[in-house]
Amino acid sequence: MRTRMLMAVGVSYAVDALFLACFWWLDRVSLGLPLLYAAAGLAHIAVFAGVFRLGWGRQGRDPYLTEWQMVTAIAVQLGAVLLAPWIKAYFLCIIFVVFAFGTLSLTIRQALLMWLSTCAMTAITLQYLPSQHNAAVTIPDNAREAVLVGLAYASILLRCLLLNHYGTVLRVRLVQRQRKLADEVVAVHRLATHDLLTGALNRHAILPMLEEQIHLVQRGRQACALALIDLDHFKRVNDGHGHLVGDQVLCRVVDTMNATLRPSDKLARYGGEEFLLLMPATTLEEALVVLERVRLAVAHQSWQDLVTDLPITLSAGITHVHARDRLDDVLARADTSLYQAKNEGRNRCVCLAAN
Ligand SMILES: Nc1nc2c(ncn2[C@@H]2O[C@H](COP(=O)(O)OP(=O)(O)OP(=O)(O)O)[C@@H](O)[C@H]2O)c(=O)[nH]1
């Protein structure tokens, strides 16, 4: 960003040097002026490139001129006014360009300070000109007109500054709105894909993931296993301790399961107290090991602060994705094995391979 800004400054100096060269061609200025102007431009770029490289100044922030760059550029223009007062309007106009570019990143206080100092520097510079050149824009007939022209110049500069400041305020507001919007998009996306109570993924989020895994298995890329997990006799928790405790149990179950899973495993709340665990790159045998670990972690979790009289356990039906499977086939198989786990006495994992 800074490099591009310095290049823009360089181009601006080059354009002005070219115009001055035309003035030289018309015999209005000596050859020294365009050369000196170009040298000033080169020095500006070299010095500020060095300053930014050393990490001084507002590096990494907006790509606008820094205060010191503005002061330097304005000083160069006022120097040129002194050297070629008969075309001073040209250099004074360039100050507007410097303002337009520089004040975008200044606070209103800094900008007003810059305006005041520029007006003062301009007034002082004009004082040093031969009398027929010492007005800002036109040759005045008398001192009152000189003051009037000076004030007019200052007011144009001020309006330019305020306009820029307004642009800056709008830009900052726009950036803030964009950030807020981006945060809201993230929040809405989370709401759409996660279960509000437990923070696990929801059914709408997990099913497309499962579809994707089925495609990968069909292309022979990797294995994939999944499990339907259901809390045992959860109704008793609700009936005995109320829904609030039931909710807390659900949250802790999810935290406990997540703590034992790999980041690549995806856990979703599939229904009330039913969860779907997707395990990419996992075979049926490996999935059984994972689910046993999950089951034991939940069973051995400390529940004393929530439920003292009931064990909190889970049953899991595990299966793997087969190349011939459609979504419903895998889910039906996981459901069948979960049903079997429940029938065999709960607090267990049952595997069911595809035929
Ligand atoms: N606290 C709470 N309970 C829920 C939530 N969603 C579902 N439930 C309860 O989960 C219980 C599920 O009961 P059942 O389907 O009979 O199953 P179960 O009691 O776990 O028995 P098995 O699954 O056969 O072991 C019901 O009491 C539901 O009200 C929830 O978000 N919060």
UniProtKB/TrEMBL annotation:
- Pfam families hit by this protein: GGDEF
Single Gene Ontology MF annotation? diguanylate cyclase activity
Q: Where is the GGDEF domain?
A: 222-354
Query: What EC number(s) does this enzyme carry?
Result: 2.7.7.65
User: Which reaction is recorded as catalysed by this protein?
Assistant: 2 GTP = 3',3'-c-di-GMP + 2 diphosphate
Tell me which SMART domains the record gives: GGDEF
Residue spans crossing the bilayer: 7-26, 32-52, 89-106
Keyword Transit peptide part of the UniProt annotation = no
Q: Which UniProt keywords apply?
A: Membrane, Nucleotidyltransferase, Transferase, Transmembrane, Transmembrane helix
Its name, as the record gives it, is diguanylate cyclase
Organism, by scientific name, is Curvibacter microcysteis
